[in-house]
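The authors assume throughout that readers already know how a fold can be written as discrete tokens. Each protein is reduced to its one-letter sequence and a matching series of backbone shape codes. I therefore recommend that a typical entry be quoted early in the introduction. For illustration, here is how one protein appears when written out as sequence plus structure tokens:
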Amino acid sequence: MIKTQIKIGIFGMGSVGASIYNELNGYPNLYALLDEDRIAKYKKNPLIINGNEVKLNMTSNLKMDLVILCVKVYHLDKALNDLKPFVDKNTIILPILNGIDANRLVKEVYPNNWVLFGAINVESNKEGNCVKTSKIMNLQFGDEYNYHLRYPLIEFKKIFDYYGIENHIYHNLKRRVWLKWIMNLAINQISAYGNYTYKDMHNDETLELMYKIFEEGYLVSKAYNIGITRGDIDELKYRCSLFESDRVTSLTLDVNKGGLNEAYIFGGRMVEVAKLKNIDIPYNTMVYNKLVGKIKEK
């Protein structure tokens, strides 16, 4: 039996936030957290997910028990300020952002709140009010270490299970966040540079480049004692071998549009953390530099 009185809010109705909302749709205390201007816009132009109109349960000021934060990293500073109407001292915040720094950055603004580690595996993108998404393959959440689960996490998991969302509370969530980041170093950057779909990247030459990026990420993770294993890297390689979707990554869409993008969060940040440990990462550096060059040409 699930506890339906738990108020769950999703802040950031982009591709990831919309995907989570879509799969939790029907839960009676689910909310899209929006300011009044955005509420008016969605009333005028409803959200369309996989061709179906989704009627959002919207609020501009209700305090939440759990906030799932799903914004682009380049919008995070503003989002953390805009989040304040929905947060009190008891609110738990689950950031589902790209990169490895979300937990730390959220804690800097909300030091007295319980801030979780989170990552998600889902193929989705959004153009205008239309979202195309696969089913969520893995919603990962919890404390950095979860050998003994704290009570609210169990209730959140029951809700996700009830609505058929594939989810896990791993023993080491920081490790899982790094794994997602390492995977995105390859997928997002190569897709954005070549304007490739997932299916386009399913060829021997591209897969070999991805695997080299994974191997470099593995070396860096070892230097930081993250706990990533050789088996984890083999899992990433296997997942890439299954690519068959015609969707593109969110970074690809952002680069094609011009303006803000998350390229730095992937390759730029990896170059930084590798340099701090004096680790050579030629393939990551090459792909990042090529992507930056393409962005500058736009």
